[in-house]
Amino acid sequence: MRKELEAIVGKKNVLDDEAILGMYSRDMSLHQPRMPSFVVKPGSAGEVQKLVKLANKHLVPLIPVSSGVHFHGETIPEQGGIAVDLGRMDRILEIDSRNRKVKIEPGVTWGALQEALKEHDQMALRPLFPHPRVSALSSSLERYPMLIPKYEYADPVLTMEVVLPHGDIFKTGTAAAENAQGAYPEGPGLDFYRFFQGAQGTLGIVTWLNIKTEYLPRHQKVFFIPFKKIEDAVEPIYQLQRRHIGNECFLLNSLDLAMLLADDRPKDFEELRDALPPYVLTVVIAGGKRRPMERIAYEEEALQEIASQLLFQPAATVGGIAGLQDTMLEKLRTPQQEDTYWKSRYKGSTQDIFFIAGMSQAKDFYRKALEVCAEFSYPTADMGVYLQPLERGRGCHLCFSFPCDPASDTDRRKTGDLYKRLSKELFSMGAFFSRPYGPWADMVYTGATQYTNTLKEIKNIFDPNNILNPGKLCY
User: Fold this and answer.
1) How many Cβ atoms are within 10 Å of 22's Cβ, its own excluded?
2) Whole-prediction pTM
3) How do residues 360-389 score in pLDDT, each as one tens digit?
4) Which of 417, 411, 340, 425 is nearest to 382 (CA)?
5) What CATH code would you report for 92-215?
6) β-sheet with 219-227: strand ranges across
7) Which residue ranges make up each domain of the chain?
């Protein structure tokens, strides 16, 4: 097997050292580690094709890996096999400023993408301050919510090239036409691109992807709006989004915001957490390529009008933190350099529960989280809360974070038990787990029999030998 792999990707790109295999057996989550047999690093779509055909020949699982760090167990090899690390494929193939799109390979990180786009007066549509080694391609495919909640950015994915589980190359949308690199994702026929979104590499290995970009703001202003309770922020967010005010818009509680802002830990982290209000809504009003100052002026006027009606006060800072506007803009526009993920700054790791819901439901989900925390003696002050409006307020991505010490078996066990219990409680209340990782998969697919059976049929058509990331989803 090793000789056949070396013939495809070269000797130096086939790894089976125990320490390296151990790195691919686990991630930042609490999921059970599983060891792969090999790690291979292809450098082209052609090499990926050959690997897929070899896996079918020997009936060996392949686990696609794009990012340098993972958080939800999606790349842990449940049934062993070969980890296919796509990090060598790290080219930005095309930046199309006029059509606001960029074509990237799997190994392109958010940091590299952001730096490259600056030269073209563009910026990436990023999720909430991603780790610098996270793949922009994989997190776009996995439907990470973007900080700009416009309708057109609800789904940043356009066309793609995929190596199917039997080894053929497939292109979606207008890119399927001969010699075309088009951006329109729908057609011909079915909207095939949706098959590969949220599939955790079980239906194909994407070798390039076109995603949307936004104009880099010429001028911008940041406003911070404090709230005492999560439900107090709901109507202001609704009103801001209905009137299309601002670009980035997100709500963090004091723990999450303190972890994000802290530099001298643990000293300034504790000071920030004590100084910050319970919740802070961050709204960025930005002017792009055309008449930026006029846009900022009328959106700021509308913001102040809503504030006077709903009795809240947008400000340039909260908690008496000097220079907070500049600090937040720097974090939004400059790639993170530190290798430690900001959510891991408090205790070394974090376990997140995230789902989609209506914003009016946020208070009920939050209260349930408090109840379960009390049941497991987990301090509620240590729970992070992040609310991201989606599609101008049609819904929201709600995330509860539970920092834990990865070196403490007791802490890991308690946090893991809390995570499973709270996930079931929230699911029973109507939380929509659109990305069912790990134990969520059984929870979600058991409750959707017809959908699950359809997914299994699709898997059998695309991947009859079940070689791509088996054990994920309902497969």
Assistant:
1) 12
2) 0.95
3) 999 999 999 999 999 999 999 999 999 999
4) 411
5) 3.30.465.10
6) 219-227, 279-287, 249-253, 384-390, 395-404, 349-357
7) 2-85, 92-215, 219-333, 347-435
